[in-house]
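ugh ok so i messed up the first submission bc i forgot one of the chains. this is the corrected input, ALL of the components this time, i swear. 380 residues overall. if the numbers dont match what u have on ur side tell me asap before i send this to the collaborators (the ones from the other lab, u know who)
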Amino acid sequence: MNPEKRADIMQATLELIAEHGFHGAPMSLIAERAGVGAGTIYRYFASKDVLINELFLELDEKIKAQILKGYSTARPIRERFLHLSCGLFGYFVEFPLHFRYVEQFHNSPYGAARRRSKILGEAGQDDVFKSLFADGLQQRAMKELPVLSLCSLAFGPMFSAIRDHILGFIELTPSLIAQLAEACWDGVKR
Amino acid sequence: MNPEKRADIMQATLELIAEHGFHGAPMSLIAERAGVGAGTIYRYFASKDVLINELFLELDEKIKAQILKGYSTARPIRERFLHLSCGLFGYFVEFPLHFRYVEQFHNSPYGAARRRSKILGEAGQDDVFKSLFADGLQQRAMKELPVLSLCSLAFGPMFSAIRDHILGFIELTPSLIAQLAEACWDGVKR
DNA sequence: AATGCGGGAATGAACATTCATTCCGACCGG
DNA sequence: CCGGTCGGAATGAATGTTCATTCCCGCATT
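and heres the new structure output, hopefully the right one now
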């Protein structure tokens, strides 16, 4: 079992699916780009489904780890909100392929079941976003709306903007990111 | 040429793709649900691609027609904004299948080219949304951001909320819709 | 050191399945 | 009968998966 080869396969899958969608990523192409034989993939992953799901989980972990860096629930609500928003913006601008992949994943049979859990978590109790909005409600800092609706107000614009950025229609500079995060805050704040 | 049969085929396509995605809508199933033979579809549509695209165009027209009802560019910016927002909300709550279809379409090779044109228009000159935001900027009623970013702020939350509604996680009552539209306005207003 | 051996890893051609599309015979109104 | 419409089995291309075979490398024997 060669962990490097496993990583190659995952990278090839990420690139192909992010760039060309699930339709454009047959196993034969993945194998070719990874520089392995078609059968080899099945030594590392039981099926294409498993491969796709494991890749998603890996990305999910990386994203979570990244945005939680320097995050403290002790800070004021607004600061916490901006920290997470800018963190996500930054991550996806740095790794556009990850964004495209996660997006594809969610709009597919694979992610259908997992759809519920938006971009991140809500997986059980430890969802940073849910608890941020719950705290915000409790402190009367945010509009009195269902938590999920607050999520929509906060992240809907973000994903839309990131799409535009990746497709080249706008350029997400740090300054624009800050402005957008502020605008989202205007949307959710009381 | 039986126009009724043509409509049946389109309706079957709409339902299957909206409910199960493109993967879950082979021509054989479409034919079965429409109550016609597989070959018959090709008497009405040159190919599956054509069928899918024509269905999209038809929905696009219906949506446009619906939200422009009672719309006047002479009204104040805020009112125009709320009119369009609530119109879209209302339409998609009434026709969830249309929402799901349009969404699937945009996240697929079919809609990739057309991606640029968001949910509606920007097709050429007559895009109501673009001109709304342009007017808003000119009147200094909205934040000084790229028009596309204003679109993101306005419609990102909406689509996210509609998804949640269709998936059954929240219920989009008229009252909640109004609140969300207001919140979106808070996001874009100066 | 050279040789032979064992076994896990890798391979890619072959297979089974799925799907869009085609084609030809059945059917029906006139 | 006959023109045109319809139906659904047949077709061929594409794709996920399997499996018999090859390859590679570490180790034991001489």
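quick check: Residues 26-28, 38-39, 42, 47-48 of chain A lie near DNA strand D (CB under 10 Å from a C1'). that seems consistent at least. Residues 48-67 of chain A form the longest helix (20 residues).
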